[in-house]
Amino acid sequence: MFNEIKIFDSLIEIKKEEHLLIRNKVVDFAKSLKGKRQSEEYWENERKASNPVKDNIIGKYGEVVANLELRRNLGFPNCKIDFEIREGREKGWNVDLQYSVINSQYPDVHVKTCDEDTHNLTMSFKNDKYSWTFQNQNANGRGGRDSLLEKNDTNELVVFMYVQGVWEDYIPEVRLVALAPWVKIKNLLKDPIIPKYKNIKKCIYLADLIKASNEQ
User: Fold this and answer.
1) Residues with Cβ < 8 Å from 213, sequence gap 6 or more?
2) 118 with 133: CB under 8 angstroms?
3) Is residue 55 assigned to a domain?
4) Are 121 and 194 in contact (CB under 8 A)?
């Protein structure tokens, strides 16, 4: 199943206690990113992140839940989530879930998470329920590129998540939308429609994932 694009768009069941434990941990993590090169000013000015703390909360929450879901329902081993606070240029683009280190039969997985604000940011077409962004470069043109964009021959996967209401005390809506080999979806990358994000970010839209899945 790791060689095909899989569309799930399935709701993930999370207990309230489980949600609060994850939420509190990722909120603490996001608020601790105070290094010189990971400050809010850096994310806003160079990465063009509209709400850096919230973006980091959404992303890390999606990463934790993706690991839970892949383990529970798809047989992946349990992977330790990286909550290390790095400073300066130590910020890297390592794969999110390094399963191959635990069991070589399982590929490593990158996690992309969106919420309704991502849809608004990329101005997705009305028939697109979700869209996800990839960092192409910093605003100054130097660095900040997701290393995944450089990979042409890899067995790594990308899991696409949707989350909404993470910061609330009630159980949020969390969905596993798709799982896909990077080599089969790299050519689906598009520029955002909003001019100020072009060159800085690339996007993948759900409609394109569905189309590619149907054609494989």
Assistant:
1) 4, 5, 6, 7, 178, 180
2) yes
3) yes
4) yes
Q: Does the reported pTM lie above 0.85?
A: yes
Domains identified in the chain, total number: 1
Residue where the block lists tokens 């899991």? 159
Strand partners, 157: 109, 181
Distance (Å, rounded) from C-alpha 38 to C-alpha 89? 9
Return phi, psi of residue 136, to 5°: -90, -40
- The amino acid sitting at 74 is L
Give 62's Cβ-side CA count (13 Å radius): 26
Could you give the C-alpha distances from 208 to 58, 154, 177, 189, 201, in angstroms and in order?
23, 21, 13, 9, 17
User: Does residue 207 sit within a domain?
Assistant: yes
pLDDT digits (tens, 9 = 90+) for 63-121: 999 999 999 999 999 999 988 776 544 455 689 999 999 999 999 999 999 987 776 65
- Residue 60 within any structural domain of the chain: yes
Q: Is residue 1 part of a domain?
A: no
Range of the domain at 34: 6-215
